[in-house]
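To: structure desk
From: M.T.
Subject: fold request, one chain
Message: Could you run this one when you get a chance? Sequence is below, nothing fancy, just the single chain.
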Amino acid sequence: MNVAAVKTRFDFQAAVANMLDGIGAHPSHAPDAQPLDYQLWTRAGLLSLHPFDTWLHSRFQDPRAAAHIIPGGPLNACSGKWNWHFTQPTPADVDQLERLLERLL
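Reply: Done. Structure tokens follow.
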């Protein structure tokens, strides 16, 4: 097998976890927390985050406060969910998420 022909798969989950560490997110200490559960204090309050292979799950603790800060878009103003799905995520997608999150700090 030609080693050059083997494509390296981008590890979105690891890249997002590294990005979250870099912007000050902390591992969650909730009783039911999973290894990649993070929390980030934002201008809209506490945001819980969990990266998966192709998407980032996030939910604001106070949906009403988040709705005042984040107009429209993928924010569910009732539940506080603010999820980001990608078909084939790239490093540029992680950069976009980082910019979005940094605006909330």
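Reply (cont.): The chain has a mean pLDDT of 89. Let me know if you need anything else for the meeting.
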